[in-house]
Structures are given as C-alpha cells and as structure tokens.
Amino acid sequence: MIAPPVTPTPPPPRHDPYAALREPNYRYFAGGWVLASMGLQMQGTALAWEVYERTRNPLALGFVSLARALPVLALALPAGQIVDLLDRRRILIATQVAFALASVLLCLGSALGVGVIWIYLLVSLTGCARVFNGPSRSSLLPQIVRPEHFHNAVTWNSGVFQISATVGPLAAGALIWFTAWLGMGPDEHGIARGVGWPVYAIAGFSCLWFALGCSMVRPYPDLISKQRRHHNPSVRDAIRPSVLIPGMLEGARHVWREKTVLGALALDLFAVLLGGATALLPVYAKDILHVGPIGLGALKAAPYIGALVIAIVLAHRRPFEHAGRTLLLCVAGFGVCTIVFGFSTSFWLSMAMLVSLGALDGVSVVIRHVLVSVRMPDHLRGRVSAVNSVFIESSNELGGFESGLVAHLFNPVISVVSGGIGTILVVLGMAAWLPELRRLRRLETPKVEVAEAVQEEEENRTST
C-alpha cells in the first residue's frame, strides 16, 4: 500500500520589521509623539537641574517627583473610566494642549525667577494632564494599527520614545549651558534664574505639534468594540458618580483576575519604587561626577540609548518564547546595574551602567506593554491603562521621592545602592509568589480568549 504524499508545511510568513511604519495612522501618531516626548524630556531635565541649583538639597528633587505622583494617585482610576467612555483621540489632543499651556507657565516662571513652591504647583498641574495622557495614548494605539502589526507598533513605539528621550536630555543640557553662558545664569544671590525658559518654550511647541498629528489620525471602526461604538455619553453623563465610581473599578478587577498581568505590574511597581536612581542624577552630575548640565544631559540620555538599541534589536526579532523568565532576569539585571552605578565615581562607568540599565528596562517595558494590551478587552483598555499608570507612573515618581528622602537622611550613594539591592530581592520574591509569571511563554493570546473576556465583562456590566 502506497502512503499518501506528505504535504510540506508552508514556511511561516516573513517577518516585516517595518509593518507598523507602513500605516499612515501610525506615522502621524509616532511623528507627533517623538517631538512631544522629546520636549517633555527636555523639560524634565531642565526642571531637575534648576530645582537642584536653587536648593542644593536632594529632598527638593524628591518633592518634584512627589508633585508628579500625587495627581496619578488621586485621578488615575477615574481618568481611565473617562477615557473608556469618551473619544480617546480627543482626550489625547486635549492633554497635549494642557501640556503646552503648563510649559508656557513654566517658561514665564523660570524667566521671572519665581519660588520653587510655584514650580512644584505647576508640576502637579502638568501631572493632572499626564494622568489622562497615558491611558488615552496607550488605549488609542490598538484602534489605529491593524492587529497583525500591533506587536511591531509597540516595539517601534518604544524605539520612538527612546529616540526622543535620548536627544531630549542632551539638547536640554546643551541649551541650559548656552543660556547660562549668555548671562542668564545665577544672579548675585546665587539663584539660577532663566536657565530653563528656552527649554520650556520648546516643550510647549512640541506638544502642540503632537496635538496636530493626533487630529489627523483616524481609528479603524472595526477595531473599536461594539459596546464603545453604540455607547457614547456626553461629558456630563460620563462624570456622573453613578457612572464613574462603579465603572472605574472594573479595570482593577480585571487586572486582579489576570495573574500574569498583575505579577508583571507588581514587579515593575516595587522594582522602580526601590531602584529610582535617575531622580538623583543632578546630585551625581554636580557633586559626585562633576560634569555640569551637559554631563547631566548625557547621564539622563544614557538609559534611553540602551533602550533604543534594544528596541531596534527587538523590532527585528520574533516575539519572546520565554517572556516571563526574560522579564524576571531583566529586572534583576536592572538592580545589579543600579548598585554598580551607585558606587561609581567614574563618568564613563556610570554611563555604561545607565546604558545597560536602560537596555534591560527596555526589554521589560515591551513585554509588559504587549502583555497588558493583548489580554485586555477593548472597552476596558482605558481603565486597565489607568491601573497600569498607578503601578508604573506613581512608582517612578514615588521612587524618586524615596530616593531623595533617603539621600537627604543619609547620602546619595546609600540611597542608590540600597535601592538596587531591594530590586533584586523583589525579583526573587515575585518569582516565588507567582510561578505562573515565571512560566509565561509567548505573549500572544488566542482571539477566542479575548472574545470570551469581552463577553464576560459585558455580562458583568449588565448584571450590575
């Protein structure tokens, strides 16, 4: 008996590393975001240098981080609910306009030499816009890029941000130095007046450019959930307590059920909370490494250089086969690099550690972002992104406050090194607490699971 011929298995489709960039929607989105994020990175660098120049106290840098964190803690969950109920694109445009207005006020305040307390207030107002910006931006992306290109878009998104975050601090450091050289530096009382105003002006313009780019984006109707297409309340209806309060908790409940997502977010929360070395970079640049504002720009850019390189590498490779194990190892490596940086008194060793730290963090960012996105139904993306903001953005800023406080009580080296040790301990604890995170393999979720999740959430909404 003759055996039937064996049909050869067709080869897998060729990986296209530029798939997302071929979509006009994504080009408008990324083209605006690269400038806006560059401007905001410049602004953050100038703020840190100006505040430390005026106060010479690391705790003042901690208060800047705290001013950013408080709006996230207070508004993140209701912001996610509002983003899910209203037009995400319009909310994103509004946040960019708000960023631009805040930058204009910072520009005036810097030029006039207002007190540091007013800078804290303006940073908090910027944080209010930031609360809505993150969920609207991340939850809009799956609606403007085709599903087969989404993983590639996330990877390029990371790369776009790394480019802006690399160039931004370097440009800010050079501009601060040039402004001081022109005679806009410290006055007779030693207060650095005016060194930040050109940076803040550029940041305001870049945010307006992103708002223009977002106005040209057109979401695909078939990528918007049926529930969102047929439920478009007014702003007044969206903020009613009877709508706002029950709905804003749905994202938290969904994250609690998705243990791998919960583990990834908790890992980032505690690792960044303890390992917030970047908040003390002005102290290292001025008092430990003695490299001035240009050196500060290089130090702030270094983690993003590492992340940019790794983003290019990830864009040209297939998705991870052992995503959970990779995530844990990268966060542990983050802690090791933080420890070496804390002890370093060499500028180039410090740069090398920050580049390595950024590359490891870049891998974990891509894994977390894809994991959160593919395991969440569309009508909950804003609320889940808001929960993500509570974990990630507040941990970044509270970590900066913790670093400034420990540096004030002890010294900067103890603050940074103890944070790196704590990060490694967190990884060990998380690997033991959530073995499913350790065993997580590929990040893609079958479409039927996503459909079942949507159906389950709609049934829960109906029953309540």
Describe this structure in words.
The protein is mainly alpha-helical and 464 residues long. It has a single domain (20-219, 241-463), classed as MFS general substrate transporter like domains (Growth Hormone, Chain: A, Up-down Bundle). Helix content is 78%, strand content 0%. The chain is built from 19 helices and no strands.
What's the short story on this structure?
With 464 residues, the protein is mainly alpha-helical. The chain has helices spanning 24-55, 58-85, 88-112, 116-144, 150-184, 197-215, 226-229, 235-238, 241-248, 250-257, 259-274, 281-288, 292-315, 323-343, 347-374, 381-409, 412-433, 435-438, 447-463.
What's the CATH first level? Mainly Alpha
Q: What's the count of strands?
A: 0
The share of residues in helices is: over 70%
- The secondary-structure element order is HHHHHHHHHHHHHHHHHHH
Oligomeric state of shown chains: single chain
Radius of gyration: 23 Å
CATH topology: Growth Hormone, Chain: A
- CATH homologous superfamily designation: MFS general substrate transporter like domains
Largest beta-sheet details: none
Tally the structural domains. Answer: 1
